[in-house]
Specification:
Blueprint (H helix, E strand, L loop, with lengths): L14 H9 L13 H11 L5 H15 L4 H16 L2 H13 L8 H6 L3 H16 L13 H10 L2 H25 L4 H5 L10 H13 L37
Helix pairs in contact: 1-7, 2-3, 2-4, 2-8, 3-4, 8-9, 9-11
């Protein structure tokens, strides 16, 4: 990736303890009132991959799976994206994906890069994430680093609840930053990346402040001011917008 998100420097410190500190809260991650969170995360992980003929062929199956789920708001966001991709010119969609996610530091799909940039904090986060994956017997694809958001969602969809909360708690600050940037750019991927945030618990004011700093400044290039990684905890987008009509009110927690 030209953004630098695909490369990292590992710190050599204990990964599990650093990962636990990064979440910075007692109960990170997913809300308790979302019975279909595993299915929704699994489907989101498929839709967030590079669009190709195989993904297009899977859209009817994905649409049918979404239609069977209960959460109106999250389901609506994902269905809106499916509807867009189904009629989009594939070549243009592929060009837009690369320009959006592979060629922009601010929109990289690598959670620890969004939060830490190319600093030592990213190495600690990646090491800890690998440790959580190993504890669940999960082997991520060698084509991406372990903080690739679709991989994190795929893991959470099949892991035990505590491990899913841990990994999703790490993903939240990055998702909040990405959603803000994609919304400002009018990207068709904004609803897709917002959907997992609807499954998460709300963030606190201190974390919102940190997220706002990342939105303004982009991924850090120095460790100054970011030594205490525990200050980044759960996060959601600064604002919430429904991307599709819904027959019931979602539980927004902006």
């Amino acid at each position: 990736m030209t953004s630098g998100a695909g490369t990292t420097r590992h710190s050599g410190s204990d990964g599990r303890s650093n990962f636990a500190g990064l979440s910075g809260i007692e109960r990170p991650g997913l809300r308790d009132d979302q019975p279909d969170w595993r299915e929704l995360l699994a489907l989101a992980s498929l839709l967030a991959e590079y669009p190709d003929e195989s993904l297009l062929a899977d859209l009817p199956t994905i649409r049918a799976a979404l239609a069977a789920l209960a959460d109106c708001q999250v389901r609506g966001r994902l269905l809106t994206f499916v509807d867009w991709l189904a009629i989009a010119d594939l070549g243009l969609a592929q060009e837009a994906y690369v320009a959006t996610f592979d060629q922009s530091r601010r929109h990289a799909l690598y959670a620890s890069y969004v939060v830490h940039g190319d600093t030592r904090g990213r190495g600690s986060a990646l090491a800890g994430l690998k440790a959580v994956y190993r504890s669940q017997g999960f082997t991520p694809s060698p084509n991406n680093l372990p903080d690739y958001l679709p991989t994190m969602w795929r893991f959470a969809a099949q892991a035990d609840r505590a491990s899913a909360d841990q990994v999703m708690g790490l993903a939240q600050p990055a998702l909040a930053v990405l959603v803000a940037g994609l919304r400002a750019a009018g990207s068709p991927w904004v609803g897709l990346l917002t959907a997992p945030l609807d499954l998460m618990r709300p963030l606190d004011d201190a974390t919102l402040t940190r997220v706002a700093q990342l939105i303004a400044d982009g991924p850090p290039t120095e460790t100054v001011g970011w030594d205490d990684a525990s200050q980044l905890s759960r996060s959601g987008p600064p604002t919430r917008q429904a991307d599709a009509p819904c027959s019931q009110e979602g539980n927004a927690h902006a």
